Recover the amino acids of this structure.
């Protein structure tokens, strides 16, 4: 299994860079960033800062040498697929072939409302997203691409240079039944927030879509994440996880965290992503990351 670090772009840039460099130096496999322009209103901090993802990733590519770099995930509503495909190919060259292109249909209402970008109802988002994936796959892999869709039209479109990777991997984030059908058709990797039980149930739906399309389910890797708390004892772990509400969380000593990761592994997870949202900054975050990579990860590598 891979273990990757999710850097919070709501932190100051020097702090983001410090966390990513620590992950690179201590054996983490990848680094993820989200793609938003502001926090969700539900988080209660509408004026909090948020660094932009493409600029941040470009800088991280030059500040690291080894870790895979990824988005979790680009919102296609405000990233035109043809423009994004060109960015992805260039970034793959800049990073030496380390990009995992994470994509999603879009969901956060406040940034769309404030910037005047249409979000649309769920069904429209999924249809638009499927067309976007056709455009992106074509431009990354084919000599020319034509898509005459309801949402996107490209005609004889060309994009060079192609990525360094022979097939630049695309990760799709989502969990609804229709979205999992899109994952089965287009994605190399799939991601969702989860508990092991949630993941197993959704993975079964994805596998059924793959079988319907004649695709080997094993050809799609699975990653997941939960809010993470590294504790000295497990006495308050259940209450802490429950206090996170609808957002999946895992809390406890390394032994308890190892049990959680083992359950994810048994449900089909290939990569565990640890967000730093609950780990603090500076030395406390470094200590938490070191505990996970030194005392939990070795059981699964």
């Amino acid at each position: 299994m891979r273990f990757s670090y999710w850097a919070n772009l709501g932190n100051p840039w020097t702090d983001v860079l410090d966390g990513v460099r620590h992950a690179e130096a201590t054996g983490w496999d990848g680094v993820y960033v989200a793609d938003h322009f502001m926090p969700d209103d539900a988080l209660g901090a509408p004026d909090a800062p948020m660094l932009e993802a493409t600029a941040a990733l470009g800088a991280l590519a030059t500040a690291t040498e080894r870790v895979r770099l990824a988005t979790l995930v680009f919102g296609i509503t405000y990233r035109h697929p043809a423009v994004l495909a060109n960015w992805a190919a260039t970034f793959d060259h800049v990073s030496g072939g380390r990009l995992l292109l994470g994509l999603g249909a879009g969901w956060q209402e406040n940034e769309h409302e404030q910037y005047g970008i249409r979000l649309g109802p769920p069904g429209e988002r999924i249809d638009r997203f499927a067309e976007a994936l056709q455009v992106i796959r074509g431009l990354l892999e084919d000599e020319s691409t034509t898509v005459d869709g309801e949402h996107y039209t490209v005609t004889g479109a060309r994009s060079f240079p192609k990525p360094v990777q022979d097939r630049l991997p695309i990760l799709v984030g989502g969990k609804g039944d229709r979205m999992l059908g899109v994952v089965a058709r287009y994605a190399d990797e799939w991601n969702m927030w989860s508990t092991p039980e949630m993941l197993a149930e959704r993975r079964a739906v994805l596998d059924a879509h793959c079988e319907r399309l004649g695709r080997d389910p094993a050809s799609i890797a699975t990653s997941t994440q939960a809010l993470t708390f590294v504790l000295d004892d497990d006495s308050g772990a259940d209450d802490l996880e429950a206090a996170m509400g609808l957002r999946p969380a895992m809390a406890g000593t390394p032994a308890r965290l190892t049990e959680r990761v083992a359950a994810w592994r048994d449900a089909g997870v290939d990569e565990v992503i640890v967000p730093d949202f609950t780990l603090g900054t500076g030395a406390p975050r470094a200590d938490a990351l070191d505990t996970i990579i030194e005392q939990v990860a070795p059981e699964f590598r």
The mean pLDDT is 97.
